[in-house]
Design brief:
Largest sheet: 4 strands, mixed
Number of strands: 4
Structural class: alpha+beta
Keywords: Membrane, Transmembrane, Transmembrane helix
Mean pLDDT: 83
Protein name: DUF4271 domain-containing protein
Order of helices and strands: HEEEEHHHHHH
Oligomer: single chain
Radius of gyration: 19 Å
């Protein structure tokens, strides 16, 4: 895969993170009536690389781990030191996360189907092909090399940019489903996040045989495009 593929993939992923930040902010403000304290374009385990403040002391931060974006909400004055109140707040937060990720997954599915249909392809045929080969893989009726050959054939048949959009779209629908499941129990969030990260690199390096330079190009494009989106967030958060 050439540099253009990595750049296109980085642009699509960064665009998803950007839209996620905006939708998550307005979902918390309008649907869940929760105050948002911080919006993160990319993750960070400590201080962000850069940050700025807009209205209502809302901090928009740029992290150094381009794997996801997130919003951090305020617990509110209704949550006191009482354990029961804290449990109610945690339960409400997990419920809101479940609903939001369900909405995101549904919107992505509708978008993918619409793009497939507009591009002149049959969504049912594409989903049937992917579903059949995934089932054959997990049922043991086909090995991973056969699945990789199928992926490469789809890449050739549908064209680079369409296939990248389709693959990333399906991936984020899967992530939405995973996040819905992880929101049911707090301990599942970190566990599933670790599984996704490890699985991504194992598949990428071992099975899809993506070169190390591809990841360098992908990360660089993610950082550059993500930083541009980070600066643009001030114009979309009202």
């Amino acid at each position: 895969m050439e540099i253009n593929t990595a750049v296109a993939l980085g642009g699509i992923v960064a665009s998803y993170f950007f839209v996620f930040c905006i939708l998550a902010y307005y979902a918390n403000i309008l649907m869940f009536k929760t105050k948002v304290n911080e919006i993160w374009m990319f993750m960070s385990f400590s201080k962000p690389l850069y940050a700025y403040t807009i209205k209502n002391d809302l901090r928009i931060k740029f992290g150094y781990i381009p794997l996801s974006s997130l919003v951090k909400t305020d617990s509110g004055e209704d949550v006191g030191p009482n354990d029961d109140e804290l449990k109610k707040y945690d339960k409400r937060t997990m419920k809101n996360a479940f609903i939001f990720h369900g909405i995101m997954g549904t919107m992505l599915t509708v978008l993918i189907v619409a793009v497939i249909w507009i591009s002149g392809y049959d969504p049912l045929v594409i989903f049937k092909d992917f579903g059949t080969h995934i089932w054959l893989l997990f049922s043991g009726k086909n090995d991973f090399s056969g699945f990789v050959n199928f992926i490469h054939s789809q890449y050739t048949a549908y064209g680079k940019h369409f296939f990248i959009f389709l693959s990333v779209g399906i991936y984020f629908v899967f992530i939405s489903l995973v996040m819905m499941i992880s929101s049911l129990y707090s301990f599942l969030s970190a566990l599933m996040g670790l599984v996704i990260i490890v699985g991504y690199f194992v598949v990428g390096f071992k099975f899809l045989e993506l070169p190390f330079t591809f990841y360098i190009d992908l990360i660089l494009s993610l950082i550059v495009i993500g930083f541009i989106y980070f600066l643009l967030l001030r114009f979309f958060i009202k």
